[in-house]
Amino acid sequence: MTAKVIDGKWVSQAVRDRVSAAVSRLPGRPTLAVVLVGDDPASAVYVRSKHEKSEQAGMRSITRRLPANTTQDEVEAVISDLNADPEVDGILLQLPLPSGLNEAAAIARIDPAKDVDGLTEISAGRLSLGKAGLKPCTPVGCVILAKHALGPDLSGKSVVVLGRSILVGKPAALLFLAENCTVTIAHSRSRDLPALCRTADILVPAVGRPEMVRGDWVKPGACIIDVGINRIDAPEKGEGKTRLVGDAHFGECSEVAGHIAPVPGGVGLMTVACLLRNTVIAACARRGWSLPAELDG
């Protein structure tokens, strides 16, 4: 068996196309504000991509750049300013923050109505209670990719989420549960991880350990939504070169799975698309606009 590779580029473009169509029918331009602290190269690339994709969708994007020596009070003051700005619909704090800054405290300052990353306690609470609200972008992208591969009805599917982080693991489990799946959260203290993973119709590795999931961990025909993005040495490319891999060993798992989301080219692309979608949803809720049909559901 050779798995079908899930085309994250195509799926994410489809989501962004729906966002663009929705924006074109709104009476104003939704605005996304990104707060970038420090000079981490990877974060700078992510922020630039979010800005470009926002503009392409017809939205407005602003970036508040702060130096690495910014204090906690200064970061939170910027967030408070954006909370108070009526023109800003969504606020995203680019993570990780430089050493010494408290990410949880900074996130807690974001107005839940503008929490387009879905990370505040109120957003998390609404998700856990099954209430309407802004949902974390990466887990939403996982569900969309699974539906693209397996069809819109995931009812009864067995899902194993490998990882219990508040950023991906826990919210992904709740989102798949809302799709009427039977969900298991596996983690470092779970017994016999390979056996647990082999029960999954949908396997979601999200632990940040390169190529941890091997082929013999996978149920034949399963769908793998690989969240991991890990940079490893690639001597075959030359001295000092690196490459990106997921938490699943792509070569081995592709021989067993029915569908697999690649790294790169899978979940990462969906995260930005879902961020834009959340910003439009937030704008409609804040401004009293009707949610366009493209984003309803």
Q: Could you characterize the architecture of this molecule?
A:
By secondary structure, this protein is of the alpha/beta class. The protein has two domains: 27-111, Rossmann fold; 137-267, Rossmann fold (3-Layer(aba) Sandwich), CATH 3.40.50. 39% of the residues lie in helices and 16% in strands. It contains ten helices and eleven strands. Strand 5 (158-162), helix 7 (169-178) and strand 6 (182-186) form a beta-alpha-beta unit. Helix 1 packs parallel to helix 10, helix 2 crosses helix 10 and helix 6 (137-150) packs across helix 10. The chain is globular. The protein starts with a strand and ends in a 10-residue tail after the last helix.
Largest sheet: 6 strands, parallel
Summed up, the helix count is 10
Strand content: 15-25%
Task: Round the Cα radius of gyration to an integer and report it.
Answer: 19 Å
List keywords for this structure.
alpha/beta; Rossmann fold; 2 domains; 10 helices; 11 strands; globular
Please outline what is shown here:
By secondary structure, the chain is α/β, with parallel strands linked by helices. The chain is 39% helix and 16% strand. The longest helix has 21 residues, at 267-287.
Draw up the topology in text.
Layout: E1 4-5, H1 8-24, E2 31-37, H2 41-56, E3 60-66, H3 72-84, E4 90-93, H4 103-108, H5 121-129, H6 137-150, E5 158-162, H7 169-178, E6 182-186, H8 193-197, E7 202-205, E8 223-225, E9 230-233, E10 242-245, H9 250-254, E11 259-261, H10 267-287
Parallel strand pairs: 1-11, 2-3, 2-4, 5-6, 5-7, 7-8, 8-11
Antiparallel strand pairs: 9-10
Helix pairs in contact: 1-10, 2-10, 6-7, 6-10
